[in-house]
Amino acid sequence: MKKGRDAVFDSGMKTIIMKNIYSNLLHEIKKGTPLVLATIVAAEGSTPQVPGVSALFSTGSLVTGTLGGGILEADALKRSQTALQDQVSRLYRFSLDEGENDEEGAVCGGAVQVILDAVPEKHVEAFVRMKGELEARRPGILLTHIEAAAGDRVSLSRFWVGGNEDLSGTPAEGIGGLTSQIEKSLSRNIPFLKSRSDREWLFFEPVIPSPRLIIAGAGHIGRALSHLGSLLDFEVTVIDDREDFANRKRLPDADHIIVDDIARAVSQIPGTSDTFFVIVTRGHAQDEAVLKECIDSAAAYIGMIGSRNKIAHAKKNALEKGWATKELWQKIHTPIGLPILSKTVEEIAVSIAAELVLVRRQHQEEGA
């Protein structure tokens, strides 16, 4: 196994930088799996999911993703089987009216518009380009051009538009006012559907790299948090200097595993505004060494485990030695995690994960 910074980019490791359905889509296309990609493009009223959510269907089953479950997803699965047979994409409206669907327990009362992409392999160029941009941590827009045919049948074309690119060469070229809408869509991570006519639409879907969760320490808490972080759509990196702790068997959910001196490895990871550091090493001195390497960064979150006495000692040490100021120390989440009276390893991991979600949402709201 590689050590240090190179290990983060080791293509031989499990690397899922695209923490979205398109990573699964490319994998299944490569395998030759027959697929239909279903995406909610508009919603009105109360619905189980929002525009931009997708589900990937194959023959008789859901592969990954969700449209919210229930009768909406069951109906999409049924329609996808027809689309698999005739290889024709669809755009349809599905009502979740309380009166119509009460027997099924669907009482949302709203409605959604769904596109079924019957031949997603036709658009693999856009998906591959998206993958490359996200691996470079550059966000963008997946633009889907929808053109009506007979009935609910449509033809689709897809384009990847990088965050700093214009719309040249796409069906959206020349449409006024879109630049500001795209910037707003990217900053808030909110898709939107734009009508060009009563038979032609453009769906703008922002796709943003997952925030990075850097877990310093592969002990019991680090291991549990790695699993939770993956479930919460973080790109998870776990660092430890013990290969018997930092390995694929113990950390199956980690996207990257680094075996190296922990402080040295952390020093080589940019503490950007979408980076979350969690310091849970096996000792106070090691925790402080790691904190020293990231405290003066622009990271969205820095959390360090420890009792109040330990934290007070660490703060005093940092201020006396001059590698932190009182202002910098205010950035540190410590004691780490939300106060849920956690006792067990798993409960502590849950409290940390909850705090990560809270901070991530707060940053999203601030950027909106």
Give an account of the 3D structure.
The longest helix has 23 residues, at 345-367. Helix 6 (220-231) packs across helix 11 (345-367). Helix 6 links the parallel strand 10 and strand 11. This protein has a nine-stranded antiparallel sheet, sandwiched between helices. It is built from eleven helices and 15 strands. By secondary structure, it is an alpha/beta fold. It has two domains: 18-209, no CATH class; 212-367, Rossmann fold (3-Layer(aba) Sandwich), CATH 3.40.50. Mean pLDDT is 88; it is low at 1-18 and 98-106.
Number of domains: 2
Radius of gyration: 23 Å
Strand content: 25-35%
Structural class: alpha/beta
Distance between the termini: 41 Å
Sequence-ordered SSE layout with sheet pairings:
Elements (H helix, E strand, L loop, with lengths): L20 H11 L4 E9 L9 E5 L2 E5 L4 H17 L2 E7 L2 H4 L9 E7 L6 H12 L4 E9 L4 E10 L15 H11 L3 E6 L2 E8 L4 E5 L3 H12 L3 E6 L15 E4 L2 H6 L7 E5 L4 H11 L6 E4 L3 H14 L4 H4 L2 E2 L11 H23 L1
Parallel strand pairs: 10-11, 10-13, 11-12, 13-14, 14-15
Antiparallel strand pairs: 1-2, 1-5, 2-3, 4-5, 4-7, 6-7, 6-9, 8-9
Helix pairs in contact: 1-4, 6-11
